[in-house]
Fold:
Amino acid sequence: MPEPLANAPEFTVSELSSALKRTVEDAYGRVRVRGEISGFRGAHSSGHCYFALKDEGAKIDAVIWKSSLFRMRFKPQEGLEVIATGKLTTFPGKSSYQIVIDALEPAGVGALMALLEERKKKLAAEGLFDAARKQLLPWLPEVIGVVTSPTGAVIRDILHRLQDRFPRRVLVWPVKVQGEGSAEQVAAAIRGFNALPEGGRIPRPDLLIVARGGGSLEDLWSFNEEIVVRAAADSTIPLISAVGHETDITLIDFVADKRAPTPTAAAEMAVPVRSELFVEVTALARRTMVCWQRGQEARRNELRAAARALPAANEVLAIPRQRLDAAGSALPRGLKANTHAHFRRFAASSAKLTLGVLHAQVSHARQRLTVGSERLTHCARSLLHRRRDRFVALEARFKASKLANAQAQRATIARARDRVHRLSDSATRAIDTLLERLDAQVTHRGQLLTALSYRGVLARGFALVRDREGHPVHRAAAIGPHARLSVEFADGNVGVTADADRPAAPAAPTSPPRSAAREARRRRAAQSADQGSLF
Structure:
């Protein structure tokens, strides 16, 4: 067996780990690694991300710090093939090496398309692409909000097209449409336009246009981010998506209320052509005037035809006028005939009203009054007699019922008094019995207490030995030489001192013989027979 080298330097574990760390970092300062993300479960509670990159033959641990994750355009996802750029280092706590990632990008268009399809299925399952969520675009908006880059050709195309078709007030929210932080700015612009109050200092748009020129899938990726898609879905203002060219498809196109193939087409969808509207309005005004003139002419013709069909005024009033003349000529004769008829009726009535007739009617009335008064008096007396008889009968029945009720109450009171006497006697007997039983229990427990007291044992000739603190002494081995003891007898205590040359106490047998045990049981049975049973 070879001997160890005596001159080899000694390293501590920390020194060796630091040396390895410097070696790895110096040799691989910045690297780009392509691999598949494995073991990603989201950001840690601290905000950092821990996962691994793997391929068919190897695997390396990876870390993304919280500050780097916030700046990343593409976030890590489980199973996504990516190209990671970062610094290779070691982790002494696990004796392993790892890569600290600063930048992350998908590995090619295929990975982006797979990620896009997966995100599209997820958002479609949530119902964000449903046609029922779409809003109708306003026919002629007063204010149009545009979310785009302020320096690109897109905003100039939109403004130029709006100026040609129908000039409207345009509010531009400048944002980045590509690169880091662009998705957050676009989502913030959409939510900012929706947050403007009605009638505020800044007018609230009636229509939103999210626009960007053409580009590659990576350039348009900001409009595929969830934050942008959800902001567009939550917009209460109708929104037109005009991202890229006609062949470019982004997720915001599916959730927008209308998709335009180009930003210029979005401006055409937003407003109609003013000159065409002028022509159309002029044509409608001309048609309205022609229809009004035709209606007036038709009503005029109808009025003329109706006027020709109506008879003349003299013809309409001829018969009523003739009837009026006939009634006027017959009126004097009718008045005279009516007066003669009333005169004859009054004359006949006055002939009947003579003095004898009046006296007879008065006498007849007085006789009827006398008869009625007598009948009323007789009826009153009869009613009074009947009421008096009824009251007498009721008084007799009341007295009889009162007497019967009093007798029934007396009988009830007598029965209740007897019952109370019986219950009182029963209670007295029960209390006496209970007191006797309790007295017997107290006497019995007193006897049991006396029998169980150690003073009964002292009265039979035994003694209780206590040490100086008053604790009972159970074994002779617990008493030292010249120890002060107190011996308690049945009639008092005696102080003693232990002998110095006492023999050693024999060891207690672990288990007494069976004959000794049987002898002890016989002695206890004899003592129990002499003492008597306490129970």
